[in-house]
From TrEMBL:
Keyword vocabulary terms for this entry: Oxidoreductase
Molecular function per GO: oxidoreductase activity, acting on the aldehyde or oxo group of donors, NAD or NADP as acceptor
PROSITE patterns: ALDEHYDE_DEHYDR_CYS
Name by which UniProt lists this protein: Glyceraldehyde-3-phosphate dehydrogenase
Source superkingdom: Bacteria
UniProt xrefs under Pfam families: Aldedh
Ranges of residues in domain Aldehyde dehydrogenase: 70-514
Length: 550
């Protein structure tokens, strides 16, 4: 990869702007110092240590021309003491299913959530701004993330109402009457990733809440401040102890939560390495329920008859949206040897048009990377590929250039199995291209991969496509035809095989994942049928307390 002093790296440097040049509506006027944590329904003033948050978007100093870091806020570094209190609060609020929240009728829980959504909508501008500054997502994508999250909650509410209607019915079979209730699991630990900090945290938190579980949630390392505007709403919209925040260094506080054995569900969207380590810490790991969205190395298989212009458009969106920092991104391209030369040429040409800049500028795809260690990692991947015989195809147009948190899109060709980039999930704007001859080559790659999230197939050849679908369906969660890999529409099943996922994260399936069936059964007699009917009319949210007597 090119050194930071080369002309193209200097061009990247010039993309950072001075504070005065940032549009007012997105400018951070003063850092957001978060001073509270939410435990047991109360917003507690924090008097301990704070973690300072610097944006990946550097600021250009008008006088010196140097680029500088910008402090955008700080948040509490909670200790094991507060973490224990948060855990105790969640356990108390669940109370073996007798707590106010799990015992509440689902329709009433929906009312609490609806109030929360209206308060959340009032915070849209502030949350969008924080997403932009914390992880350097474009304003358009940050707005999309916010709006998509609201849509996701609304869809979840719609689906939960349907589920509630289903459980208000009973089934008669073989002389028995059965009425199935869906009940929560208990205490859920929710942790989302930095790339969709709001959306993917809520992808687990919302269905878990709606189904009556109580929550501990730890915001992602990059993407923490954006939850600050929601703390008040969490506190006022839900009974105490139902939602508790856990802030601080994951390595210091998450192990104790797992080791306590009191976490019933681990809901994590992140890395399989972290998921495996956390699961092992639980004393009853075989009984721990996991809902996981993990790593992926999604491949595109581009066949000789593919429409190359269309394919290149999809590949660029698939590999480079949000700098390739998406679990669903296309991370390796298998291109048939007969068309690899024209494909590469069209790709390199198209990449000249890609927008590189700051999140508030129009038409931008590539922005500074969110993780400070990522540019060095990508440089190592590219250097390794170059040393083993690949070229940076778009080097003349900036491919390989790096300046601080900016990494220029980089096309590597020809890539082979000896290279790091062939196997590892780069999570950045590097596009490795592997030429192939026989269909069995990309198929073997997918079969042998530890991951199995998605694949894209580009072709109109029915025989080849249906053969690939039949061969890959049990290896892969989603097969995309003539389009990039992606999660949306969010109502489609979102899952994966092997180290890519555990459970399905979409609307209906997530409600199922965060609850379990409990069936009430009786012999079919007129009296019992009447009993079941009466229970259905009066029950569903009754709660045994010391005051209840018969
Ligand atoms: O990072 C994983 C996200 O769920 C991807 O969602 P997306 O495909 O809509 O960008």
């Amino acid at each position: 990869m090119a050194e930071q002093t080369n002309p193209i790296s200097k061009d990247l440097k010039s993309l950072f702007s001075t504070l005065a040049d940032i549009p007012e509506d997105i400018r951070i006027e003063s850092p957001l110092h978060q001073k509270q944590i939410l435990i047991d329904g109360a917003l507690r003033e924090w008097t301990g240590d704070f973690h300072e948050v610097y944006s990946p978007i550097l600021i250009s100093n008008k006088e010196t021309g140097a680029t500088e870091q910008l402090l955008i806020g700080s948040y509490p570094i909670a200790t094991t003491k507060e973490t224990q209190e948060a855990l105790d609060a969640a356990v108390r609020a669940y109370d073996g299913g007798r707590g106010a929240w799990p015992a509440m009728h689902i329709n009433e829980r929906i009312q609490h959530l609806t109030r929360f959504v209206s308060e959340m909508k009032a915070q849209r501008q502030q949350i969008v701004k924080l997403i932009v500054w914390e992880i350097s997502k474009t304003v358009a994508d940050a707005e999309k993330e916010f709006d998509r999250t609201i849509d996701y909650i609304n869809e979840t509410v719609r689906s939960a109402k349907q589920l509630s209607n289903q459980t208000n019915a009973f089934q008669v079979t073989q002389g028995f009457i059965g009425q199935t209730k869906r009940v929560p699991h208990g205490v859920v630990l929710c942790m989302g990733p930095f790339n969709y900090p709001l959306n993917e945290t809520f992808t687990t938190l919302i269905p878990a809440l709606i189904m009556g579980n109580t929550i501990l949630f730890k915001p992602p390392k990059h993407g923490t401040l954006l939850f600050e505007p929601l703390l008040e709403a969490f506190s006022s919209c839900f009974p105490k102890g139902v939602v508790n925040t856990v802030y601080g260094r994951g390595r210091d506080i998450v192990p104790m939560l797992m080791e306590s054995g009191k976490i019933d569900v681990l809901a994590l969207i992140g890395s399989s390495r972290v998921a495996d380590a956390l699961k092992k810490m639980h004393p009853k790991s075989n009984r721990l329920k996991s809902v996981l969205g993990l790593d992926a190395k999604n491949a595109a298989i581009i066949l000789p008859d593919a429409d190359l212009t269309h394919t290149v458009r999809e590949v660029i969106a698939g590999a480079l949206s949000f700098n390739g920092q998406r679990c669903t991104a296309l991370k390796v391209l298998f291109v048939h040897h007969e068309i690899v030369a024209p494909f590469n040429q069209i790709l390199v040409e198209a990449l000249k048009q890609i927008g590189i800049g700051l999140p508030w500028q129009k038409g931008i795809t590539i922005t500074p990377l969110a993780e400070p260690e990522k540019p060095a990692y990508l440089k190592a991947c590219v250097d390794d590929a170059l040393a083993k015989g690949a070229d940076v195809l778009n080097a003349a147009d900036g491919g390989g250039a790096i300046y601080e948190s900016f990494v220029h899109p980089t096309v590597l060709y020809p890539v082979n199995s000896a290279m790091k980039i062939y196997h590892e999930e780069q999570f950045g704007p590097v596009i490795p291209i592997v030429p192939f001859t026989a269909l069995s080559e990309p198929v073997e790659y997918i079969m042998n991969s530890p991951y199995g999230q998605q694949v894209s197939i580009f072709s109109q050849d029915t025989d080849a496509v249906s053969l690939l679908i039949d061969t890959l369906a049990n290896q892969i969660g989603r097969i995309n035809l003539n389009s990039q890999c992606q999660r949306s529409p969010d109502t489609f099943p979102f899952n994966g095989r092997k180290d890519s996922a555990d459970g399905t994260l979409s609307v209906d399936e997530a409600l199922i994942a965060f609850s379990v069936d409990s069936v009430v059964v009786t012999k079919q007699t007129p009296e019992n049928e009447q009993l079941i009917r009466s229970i259905l009319e009066t029950g569903g949210s009754r709660r045994l307390t010391n005051e209840v007597s018969f």
